[in-house]
Write a structure and sequence with these properties.
alpha+beta, two-stranded antiparallel sheet, two-stranded antiparallel ribbon, 2 helices, 8 strands, 43% helix, binds zinc ion
């Protein structure tokens, strides 16, 4: 290959490499941000008695309902395995909530 053609090859290769590197950094950043947002979310819905975190939000798969297709939906206000106490309004894990009343409120009954 001619020298000048090789130079053009090199230019394209280094351009592609830089682009791939940039994309990778962006991806890592996005993933870190998502993780941080998820941790914040868990913090918001953790059990106020034992500090247990919810595993994730409730996800309802695509379903056929009422003659319509409902797309998959994520309910960020419904953490899995957690319940909101009707008395104090705080979140508690399954071990610390019974019939929508948390253990702390039950002790004050
Ligand atoms: Zn708990
Ligand atoms: Zn309570």
């Amino acid at each position: 290959m001619n020298n000048w053609k090789q130079k053009i090859e090199d230019m394209y290769q280094s351009k592609a490499k830089r682009k791939a590197e940039q994309e990778l950094t962006q991806e890592t950043q996005e993933r870190a941000e998502n993780l941080k947002a998820f941790k914040n979310w868990q913090e918001r819905f953790k059990c106020h008695i034992c500090s247990k975190f919810p595993s994730g939000p409730l996800v309802i798969k695509e379903q056929w309902y009422g003659g319509e297709i409902w797309p998959e939906a994520t309910y960020w206000d419904m953490p899995i395995g957690m319940g909101k106490c009707v008395t104090c309004g705080k979140w508690a894990c399954e071990d610390h909530i019974y019939r929508k009343v948390c253990q702390k409120c039950a002790e004050r009954l």
